[in-house]
Each structure stands twice: as structure tokens, then as C-alpha cells.
């Protein structure tokens, strides 16, 4: 699983931090830090966090190249 957060879109609501605290961490009032490739046990929490983001700043997908012919791109959901 790969995560990309659009930090320009993120408004620091921190819903992701509450739902997946091992993956997302808020520093200060608005600086979001995250692990771009969390382990499998965090998968469901990350999906819930992405769904809960009020501005839809979190993109979740499989490892780049998975399920493609040429090995390019990501399966972003």
C-alpha cells in the first residue's frame, strides 16, 4: 500500500491522525507527517482515514506498478 497526501489541499483537520495514529502525525497546528508505505496491519485504518478526510487530500493505492503491463503508474483509489 502506498499513500500520497496532497499537502497543499490538507487543511489540518487531523481526522487521519485520529483514525490511523501509527501512520499520520500532526506536528504543530498544521504540519502533517505520514508514512508513505505503511505495513499491512494498518491498511484498513488508512482506508478509513482517507475516506474521512474532509478535503480528500489522501490518495491510497497499491505499490506503483502493481497490476499494470508496463510497471508504471499506481492503482489509486
Folded structure, characterized:
This protein has 77 residues and is of the alpha+beta class. The protein has two helices and four strands. The chain has a two-stranded antiparallel ribbon. It has a two-stranded antiparallel ribbon with strand order 2-3. A hairpin with a 3-residue loop joins strand 2 and strand 3. The longest helix is centred in the middle third of the chain and has 10 residues. The radius of gyration is 13 Å and the shape is globular. The termini are close together. The C terminus is likely disordered.
Number of helices: 2
Distance between the termini: 11 Å
Order of helices and strands: EHEEHE
pLDDT < 50 stretches: 64-77
What share of residues are in beta strands?
Answer: 15-25%
What structural class is derived from the secondary structure elements? Answer: alpha+beta
The number of E-state strands comes to 4
Shape: globular
Set out the fold topology.
Blueprint: E1 2-5, H1 15-19, E2 24-27, E3 31-34, H2 43-52, E4 58-61
Antiparallel strand pairs: 1-4, 2-3
Summarize the structure.
The protein is α+β, with helices and mostly antiparallel strands.
Notable traits:
2 helices; globular; alpha+beta; two-stranded antiparallel sheet; 77 residues; 4 strands; single chain
Amino acid at each position: 500500500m502506498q499513500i500520497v497526501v496532497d499537502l497543499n489541499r490538507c487543511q489540518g483537520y487531523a481526522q487521519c491522525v485520529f483514525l490511523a495514529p501509527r501512520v499520520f502525525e500532526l506536528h504543530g497546528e498544521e504540519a502533517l507527517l505520514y508514512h508513505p508505505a505503511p505495513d499491512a496491519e494498518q491498511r484498513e485504518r488508512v482506508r478509513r482515514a482517507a475516506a474521512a478526510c474532509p478535503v480528500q487530500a489522501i490518495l491510497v493505492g497499491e505499490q506503483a506498478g502493481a497490476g499494470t503491463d508496463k510497471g508504471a503508474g499506481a492503482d489509486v483509489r
